[in-house]
């Protein structure tokens, strides 16, 4: 009997490698979930230790005046903050609640995208590298348009990855929907549609989609999602288009000229927010992959087995390069903001993770250098969370966390002076100042800006004090180290006098100087 058993042919188990891979994948997935959960708990706590940045308070005012679109952006951020404050009230937690949750969702989808393109280990490493980047760490706790934009970008990339081999147009609705929703938060997300177009144009097995309903179903769904923005802008003379052209210095009044210092500033800021060495590592890996893809010999990028990894590399390259190239060209004339390229570097993280794991040998100098770059980025990110011990001011550099400190001092001072002088309403020179006072003032009052015929921001679309305060006679005017605008307030009030000049303070160090004027005998309503 033993001889019979020993002589029996061994049964092959073709599924066993797949089972082992699945078990290993689950372990990496479990590790990813543990890391995301730990970061999320920390971010919920940490977000409550910082004052709002001015833009968060500004978007909170949008949420108090819900609309289908706004002057500079779509309605996504306003409706998200409205939901957060409906759950948690007009608090810092209410405003930032979904920023933290969306960042967790982005991290998980980044892991899944890396896993679907390569393997679970690659996805996990991309997640770890993302946690090391200063820009993503800051964006994970601040409720601006970026957490929404990155979340929708990553979901659209994953949905496209799932749909790109299908000829069923229904499967292409979801990536189009996520691009469209992303554009309702940040118009930069339109670049993802361009990335998908370039990928289909480049990848011969997927080029057929440009001649089928699949790609155009995605495109149609994307622009259908933009209907609220299109309707609102049609009613307001396409003011958002004008604003975006002015922001990029592309309007007819601007002259596009080459300015080397602007381009240098853009690259310097990019290096700073992504950590210099890790930024260079991502760029180096991306250019290496692009060079290999364009060369005649691409075997180094092809995986063994049935999966052609060159397709994954092509998709990532197409997701990575368009935004940095576009904003680099714009920065020839005027430097773009550092966060404008943030969606592209999600693909850059996966490129670097896959390059590190699959195209550098263990113990090689290059691999060690990249690990050192990641470690330095992590240290930079950790230090960024608490900068009070770093003597930025002695070096003549602004502390990056000064933007989230001591705003309540401004609002408390304004509230006391308003009560002391019996001022009926508050006017602020800048929308940032007006928004912060409105949030941190104990009564959350309406705060106005000097009325102007020129549309400058969202305050221009809301009723001004000439409409709502006709029977009131005095106001406080709050500005930075500036004078009262003579073209408006001096004409509307017969008496203007400075009553307070002070600095907000943090750890005994002055942050921002403000001047407060008493405006008396308001008579514009009588004219």
What do these coordinates show?
With 527 residues, the protein is α/β, with parallel strands linked by helices. The protein has 23 helices and five strands. The protein has helices spanning 2-7, 16-47, 54-64, 76-88, 92-117, 120-132, 134-139, 145-163, 173-183, 190-202, 213-224, 227-235, 239-247, 260-273, 276-294, 309-320, 322-330, 344-358, 365-384, 407-421, 431-440, 465-468, 489-492; strands spanning 425-428, 447-448, 475-479, 493-506, 509-522. A five-stranded mixed β-sheet has the order 2-1-3-5-4. Helix 6 packs across helix 18 and helix 14 crosses helix 15 (276-294). The protein is globular. Residues 1-14 and 303-307 have low confidence and may be disordered.
Briefly summarize what is shown.
The protein has 23 helices and five strands. With 527 residues, the chain is an alpha/beta fold.
Shape: globular
Report the count of strand segments: 5
Q: Estimate what percentage of residues fall within beta strands.
A: 5-15%
The structural class is alpha/beta
Can you give the mean pLDDT? Answer: 88
Individual helix count: 23
* Biggest sheet character: 5 strands, mixed
Question: What are the secondary-structure elements, in order, as H or E?
Answer: HHHHHHHHHHHHHHHHHHHHEHEHEHEE
Q: Termini, distance in Å?
A: 113 Å
Arrangement of strands in the largest sheet: 2-1-3-5-4
Q: State the helical fraction.
A: 55-70%
Uncertain stretches = 1-14, 303-307
Radius of gyration of CA atoms, rounded to a whole number: 27 Å
């Amino acid at each position: 009997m033993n001889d019979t058993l020993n002589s029996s042919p061994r049964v092959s188990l073709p599924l066993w490698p797949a089972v082992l891979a699945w078990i290993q994948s689950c372990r990496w997935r479990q590790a990813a979930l543990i890391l995301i959960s730990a970061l999320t708990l920390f971010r919920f706590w940490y977000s409550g230790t910082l004052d709002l940045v001015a833009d968060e308070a500004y978007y909170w005012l949008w949420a108090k005046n819900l609309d289908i679109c706004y002057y500079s952006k779509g309605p996504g951020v306003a409706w998200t903050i409205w939901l957060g404050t409906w759950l948690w009230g007009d608090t810092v937690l209410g405003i930032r609640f979904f920023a933290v949750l969306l960042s967790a969702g982005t991290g998980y989808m980044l892991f899944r995208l890396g896993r679907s393109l390569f393997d679970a280990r690659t996805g996990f490493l991309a997640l770890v590298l993302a946690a090391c980047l200063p820009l993503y760490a800051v964006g994970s706790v601040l409720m601006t348009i970026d957490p929404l934009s990155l979340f929708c970008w990553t979901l659209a990339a994953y949905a496209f990855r799932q749909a790109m081999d299908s000829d069923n147009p229904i499967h292409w609705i979801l990536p189009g929907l996520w691009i469209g929703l992303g554009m309702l938060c940040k118009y930069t997300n339109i670049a993802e549609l361009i990335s998908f177009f370039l990928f289909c144009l480049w990848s011969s097995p997927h080029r057929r989609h440009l001649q089928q309903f699949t790609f155009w179903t995605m495109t149609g769904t994307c622009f259908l999602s933009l209907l609220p923005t299109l309707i609102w802008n049609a009613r307001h003379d396409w003011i958002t288009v004008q604003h975006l052209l002015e922001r990029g210095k592309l309007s007819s009044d601007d002259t596009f000229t080459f300015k080397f210092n602007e381009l240098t500033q853009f690259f310097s800021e990019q290096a700073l927010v992504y950590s210099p060495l890790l930024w260079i590592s991502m760029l180096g890996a991306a250019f290496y992959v692009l060079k290999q893809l364009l060369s005649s010999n691409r075997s180094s990028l092809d995986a063994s087995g049935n999966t052609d990894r060159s397709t994954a590399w092509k998709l990532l390259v197409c997701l990575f390069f368009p935004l940095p190239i576009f904003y680099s060209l714009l920065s020839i004339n005027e430097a773009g903001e550092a966060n404008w390229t943030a969606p592209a570097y999600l693909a850059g993280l996966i490129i670097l993770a896959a390059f590190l794991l699959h195209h550098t040998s263990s113990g090689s100098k290059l691999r060690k250098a990249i690990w050192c770059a990641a470690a330095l980025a992590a240290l930079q990110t950790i230090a960024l969370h608490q900068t009070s011990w770093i003597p930025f001011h002695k070096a003549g550099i602004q502390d990056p966390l000064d933007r989230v400190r001591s705003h309540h001092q401004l609002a408390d001072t304004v509230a006391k002076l308003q009560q002391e002088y019996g001022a009926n309403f508050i006017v602020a020179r800048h929308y940032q100042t007006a928004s912060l006072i409105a949030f941190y003032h104990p009564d959350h009052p309406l705060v106005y800006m000097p009325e102007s015929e020129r549309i400058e921001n969202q305050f221009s679309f809301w009723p001004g004090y000439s409409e709502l305060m006709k029977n009131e006679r005095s106001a406080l005017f709050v500005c930075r180290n500036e004078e009262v605008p003579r073209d408006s307030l001096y004409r509307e009030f017969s008496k203007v006098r400075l009553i307070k000049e002070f600095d907000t303070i943090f750890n005994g160090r002055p942050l921002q100087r403000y001047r407060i004027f008493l405006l008396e005998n308001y008579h514009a309503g009588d004219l």
